[in-house]
Design brief:
By secondary structure, the protein is of the alpha+beta class. It has 8 helices and 14 strands. The strands form 4 sheets. A 7-stranded antiparallel sheet has the order 1-2-3-4-5-7-6. Strands 8-10-11 form a 3-stranded antiparallel sheet. GO terms for molecular function: ATP binding; protein serine/threonine kinase activity.
Length: 296
C-alpha cells in the first residue's frame, strides 16, 4: 500500500516517497476519475485512478478491487503499481496507481476503424482475442469471474497486446442462489455492476434456486468478439434505442458463426474458457498470418 502520500502542489503527488507529476485527465466515470501522471524517478507514464468512496460500502468495494489486482501477476491482466486511501474533508478516495497503456481501450481502436470506414482483419481479431482469453483463463483458474468484460475494459498496447482492466466487479466464480431474496440481491448487484449490453442473460432475471458461474464471462466474451467483427456490440443499438436488452438476450439473434458457441442463452450449454482458448489457437494456426498492429 502506498505510504506517506501527500499533495505537494496542484500538479504533484507522492506514493512511497516517489513523486508523480500530473499531465492530463484521461477519463471520468460516475464514481471515479483517471489522470495521466509521470514518475519523476523513472520518467514513465502511469494512470492514477481515483475512486470516490461515499460510504463504508464504497470503501469496501474499492478495497476489493485492490485485492483483485493483487491476486494476479499475469501479462494479460493490468497490474497495480501502488495504492492508498486518501481522507480529505471527511471524504474518502481510493487512489490506484496503474501502468499507462499507450493505445488506450479496444473500444477506442474500434471507434477509429469505424470512423475510417475500415474493419479489423481476422488475424488481428484472433491475436487480441487470444490475449483476452488468456487473461480470463487466469481469472477463472483462481475461482473468480470478471463480470464486466467489455471493449472499454480491455486496454491495448502498441503491439495489440491486451490487458483486462477494471476489476471492481470481480467476485467468486460460483454464486449459489437459494431463495427469491438472494436472487433479487444478485440481480440488483448485476444491474449496478455489470454493463447492460454485455450482461449475460442469467443475470437479468435471476432464478430463485440456481448456480451462476464464470460462464457469464463467456457470454460477454462473445459480445466482445462480435464487437471486434462488426465494430459495435450485438445489443448496443438496442440499448441506445431504449428497447429492452433483457428481452433481446432471451431471443435468438443473428450473430456471426464464431460467436455462436459463446453466446448461448442457457449458461450450462456455454463452453469453459479453456475450450474457447483452444478454438482460438486452432484458428490462429490455420490462419498462419502475421498481425499488422500499427493500422490504428
Amino acid at each position: 500500500m502506498g505510504q506517506a502520500l501527500c499533495i505537494c502542489s496542484r500538479s504533484a503527488i507522492t506514493f512511497d516517497n516517489k513523486r508523480y507529476y500530473f499531465i492530463q485527465k484521461l477519463d471520468e466515470g460516475g464514481f471515479s476519475y483517471v489522470d495521466l501522471v509521470e514518475g519523476a524517478h523513472d520518467g514513465r507514464f502511469y494512470a492514477l485512478k481515483r475512486i470516490l468512496c461515499h460510504d463504508r460500502e464504497g470503501r469496501k468495494e474499492a478495497q476489493t478491487e485492490v485485492e483483485m489486482h493483487r491476486l494476479f501477476n499475469h501479462p494479460n491482466i493490468l497490474s497495480l503499481t501502488s495504492h492508498t486511501f486518501m481522507e480529505r474533508g471527511g471524504k474518502c478516495e481510493a487512489w490506484l496507481l496503474l501502468p499507462y497503456i499507450s493505445k488506450g481501450s479496444l473500444w477506442a481502436v474500434l471507434e477509429k476503424l469505424r470512423d475510417k470506414g475500415s474493419s479489423m482483419p481476422e488475424s488481428r481479431i484472433l491475436h487480441i482475442l487470444h490475449g483476452i482469453c488468456e487473461g480470463l483463463k487466469a481469472i477463472h483458474d483462481k475461482g473468480y469471474a470478471h463480470r464486466d468484460l467489455k471493449p472499454t475494459n480491455v486496454l491495448l498496447d502498441d503491439n495489440d497486446h491486451p490487458f483486462l482492466m477494471d476489476l471492481g466487479s470481480m467476485n467468486k466464480a460460483k454464486i449459489e442462489v437459494r431463495g427469491s431474496r438472494e436472487a433479487m440481491t444478485v440481480q440488483d448487484w448485476a444491474a449496478q455492476r455489470c454493463t447492460i449490453s454485455y450482461r449475460a442473460p442469467e443475470l437479468f432475471n435471476v432464478e430463485s434456486h440456481c448456480i451462476i458461474d464464470e460462464r457469464t464471462d463467456i457470454w460477454s466474451l462473445g459480445c466482445v468478439l462480435y464487437c471486434m467483427m462488426m465494430l459495435e456490440g450485438p445489443y448496443d443499438l438496442i440499448f441506445q434505442k431504449g428497447d429492452s436488452v433483457a428481452l433481446a438476450v432471451q431471443n435468438p439473434v443473428s450473430i456471426p458463426q464464431p460467436c455462436s458457441s459463446t453466446m448461448v442463452t442457457n449458461p450450462q450449454e456455454r463452453p469453459r474458457i479453456s475450450w474457447v482458448l483452444d478454438q482460438v489457437q486452432n484458428l490462429q494456426d490455420s490462419n498462419g498470418t502475421d498481425v499488422d498492429t500499427n493500422r490504428v
